[in-house]
Write a structure and sequence with these properties.
The chain is α+β, with helices and mostly antiparallel strands. It is built from five helices and six strands. A four-stranded antiparallel sheet has the order 4-5-1-6.
Length: 187
């Protein structure tokens, strides 16, 4: 089939013009490829994680150690997805300098200037990309299936704009295992 912009164009589900690297709270949902149940099971309204689910959980918990601009709030690993509230904090630049890191100047050549692709540094997109990559690599080593996708291509995010929304989302995350049979991701 010949390329057709209307059919083949990937449309972003992100809020147009919004800077996802700015400080704030974000509700994130990342689903497995084909919503396959590979992280564990729900028993009596509680999640029982298997070794893959523990990788998902441990990498999530490790996130603020790797990315100093990130603070984690409520989260839950479900059989085929993870929900979490992520906060990007202020003062990110100062944190890097205290660690002794210095920003590296971009390099270019006379032939081809450096082309930056991928998500913006210190953004929700870069967080998710790094997280998915690490989890996928670890699970695929255990499964003996290098290069196999664990996650669906995209992720869902919602900008949390006020306390009321924050508390509603927190309660949703906490109660998610108890409502698994009716969950839209249950399939």
């Amino acid at each position: 089939m010949k390329y057709n912009h209307e059919i083949h164009h990937r449309r972003s589900i992100r809020l147009k013009g919004y800077d996802y690297s700015q400080s704030g709270l974000y509700f994130i949902t990342i689903c497995t490829q084909n919503r396959e149940h590979i992280f564990g099971t729900i028993e009596n309204g509680k999640i029982s994680l298997n070794e893959y689910g523990n990788i998902v959980k441990n990498e999530w918990i490790r996130t603020p150690k790797i990315r100093k601009e990130i603070e984690l709030h409520e989260y839950i690993v479900m059989p085929n997805h993870i929900h979490g509230i992520v906060e990007i904090t202020d003062g990110r630049g100062d944190v890097y300098y205290r660690r002794g890191d210095r920003p590296v100047a971009p390099t270019t050549t006379l032939i081809a200037p450096m082309v930056k692709s991928g998500p913006k540094q210190n953004s929700i997109g870069s967080l998710i990309a790094g997280y998915k990559s690490s989890v996928t690599k670890q699970i695929n080593i255990l499964r003996g299936k290098p290069g196999v996708s664990i996650w669906q291509r995209n992720y869902y995010e919602q900008i949390i704009r006020n306390k009321r929304s924050y508390y509603q989302i927190s309660e949703y995350i906490k109660s998610n295992p108890g409502k698994w049979q009716n969950d839209k991701y249950h399939e």
